[in-house]
Structure formats: C-alpha cells, structure tokens
Write a structure and sequence with these properties.
single chain, alpha+beta, four-stranded mixed β-sheet, 4 strands, globular, binds glutathione
C-alpha cells in the first residue's frame, strides 16, 4: 500500500517543521507506515489537478489507493484509526483523545493562526501595531487554560495519543513568539513531543526536503 502526501517544494519556514505536512509525517512515523511525498509549488496548489485533491488549494493531501483526504485533522484521525499506536484501545479513552484533537484544531490553533496573520499579512496596516497585543493576549488566554489543565502531566490524557500529536504540532508555532516560555509545563510538553523518535524522523525528513541537509 503506497501512501502519498503533498508538501511544499519550498516551505515558507525554510524547514523549521511548521508546515502542516510535518504533523502528517509524524503520525505516519508513529505508526510505522512508510510514505512518499509529492512536492508542489504555491502556484500548483491553485491549479485544477491539485484542487481536485484539495478543494481549498492547500497542503497537505493524503492519497492511499483510491482514497484522497485533505485537512490534517481528518488525515491524522484516519491514520490513527487504521493503525495501532496513536489511539487507546479503551473506547472512552479513544473518544477523549479524539476530543483533544478537535480542541487542538478548533480551539487552540485559531488564535495562534491569527498571530501569523497579524505578523505577516497585516504588518503594513496602520492598525497592526495596536492589534498585535490583543492577538497575543487571546493566545495567552487559551494557552493558560491548557497549562492549568495539564498541570504536571506528561500528556493530555494518560499515554501519548493523536491528541498530543496535534496539540504539540499546534503549540510549536508559538515558539518564536516567546509565549510558550511563559508556561513552563507547556514548553516541557512540547519538548517531550519533539523528543519522540517519530517526530525527529518527520522533522528531519521535511528539513532535508527544504534544505538538502
Ligand atoms: N486546516 C488545514 C489548513 C491547511 C493549510 O493552511 N495549509 C497551508 C500550509 S501549512 C497552505 O497550504 N497554505 C497555502 C494556502 O492556503 O494558499 C489543515 O489542517 O490541513
């Protein structure tokens, strides 16, 4: 069975692992599935061939036999449901791990994405300097709630799961803002995720693709 994902031929972050193919690579590494990567340009993702795979013209996509998926939440959930290693066997624990995946994507990620918009897309606007602290405080609000919930736990709910994979992937985007360091338990949580051998393999693969290193 060949799995093919798409990734940028040149990621805007230059291989820092922030493009969303990294989380899919990480999930595949966690469950021991090999995969191929089709590299696409910013122009190609808006063209009909890619739009047939991804209606919104984004990466990553996931192809496996006749199945085509887009949205990292759906892709990681599919991988986690098909292969052992990312979801607990117990039905209730499994449901909770999936809830954490949704929390990462629909509650924690949106304010973090706003920061990227504020910094990169709106920096030339006259109101951008005034808006930035508001955006940062909205992130702090969310992240603090997560920090309180996690307390000194290693992972969100017992053993490492797809919920952690998604939450760590989302929080990683905060590193350059300094906000993560304000919450030492979350900084340690992210570092634990990054230390996983599967994450290292995924990170190294995307970096090699972007830098040749
Ligand atoms: N919600 C989507 C977001 C995908 C996304 O924003 N991908 C970015 C790269 S990390 C992209 O393709 N950006 C180019 C664009 O939107 O034109 C997911 O989780 O898969």
């Amino acid at each position: 069975m060949t799995i093919t994902i798409t990734a940028f031929e040149r990621s805007p972050d230059g291989g820092k692992g922030l493009a969303r193919d990294t989380r899919v690579r990480w999930a595949l590494e966690e469950v021991g599935q090999s995969y191929e990567v089709r590299f696409v340009s910013f122009q190609a993702i808006k063209e009909p061939a890619h739009l047939a795979l991804h209606p919104f013209g984004q990466i990553p996509t996931y192809e496996e036999r006749g199945l085509v998926l887009f949205e990292t939440g759906a892709i990681v959930l599919h991988i986690a449901q098909r292969h052992a290693g990312l979801l607990p066997d117990d039905a209730d624990a499994r449901a909770r791990a999936i809830a954490w995946m949704f929390a990462a994507l629909s509650t924690v990620e949106p304010p973090i994405l706003e920061l990227a918009n504020a910094k990169f897309l709106e920096s030339d606007k006259p109101w951008s300097k005034e808006r930035l602290p508001l955006v940062m405080d909205r992130i702090r609000g969310r992240v603090k709630q997560l920090s309180v919930r996690m307390d000194d736990a290693n992972w969100l709910d017992g053993a490492f799961s797809a919920g952690d994979l998604m939450m760590v992937s989302v929080l990683l985007r905060l590193r350059s803002s300094g906000i993560l360091d304000e919450y030492p338990n979350l900084a340690a949580y992210v570092a634990r995720g990054e230390a996983r051998p599967a994450y290292r393999r995924a990170f190294d693969a995307q970096r090699a693709a972007n830098t040749g290193l």
